[in-house]
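Internal tracking record. Fields below are filled automatically when a chain is submitted to the structure queue. Please do not edit lines marked as system-generated. If the sequence contains nonstandard residues, flag them in the REMARKS field before resubmitting.
Queue: standard
Priority: normal
Entity type: single polypeptide chain
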Amino acid sequence: MGFVKRFLFTHLLESISDSEFIMEKIWKNDLTDEVLALLSGQTLERARSIIKEFDSKTFFQTARLIIKNTRSVEFKKDIPYVLIINDKDETVDIERIKSLFEREIPKSNLLTIYTTIEHYPKDISKKYFQHNIPKTEIEKISDWIT
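SYSTEM-GENERATED OUTPUT FOLLOWS
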């Protein structure tokens, strides 16, 4: 993102984030999903999912932090990474994330585990995770990081 665009978005998000009233009004507006999809490059379905799953304050404050961040992601090369993926999750671009991890982390330090965990699980109980991450995968992770 260019300097001018980052500057404008940062100041806009800071102004919005200063008022819970404004955040709520924007969040509950009928056009918010379409504007969010347009600005983010996400599909309308993903934008609607974000609006459904996030509260306005969390969204705007997180967006402000992301926009203000100018540092690139740095992976440590000498530690093990476990990438846990639900390849049916349409909330994120899984191929882009996998590609980033595979490009930046030596193959010998990356373990990819596939699960059925939802991106925003409603049930965060031990039973839910036991059901969605098979014991064999947990053992793989444990062996990997020890």
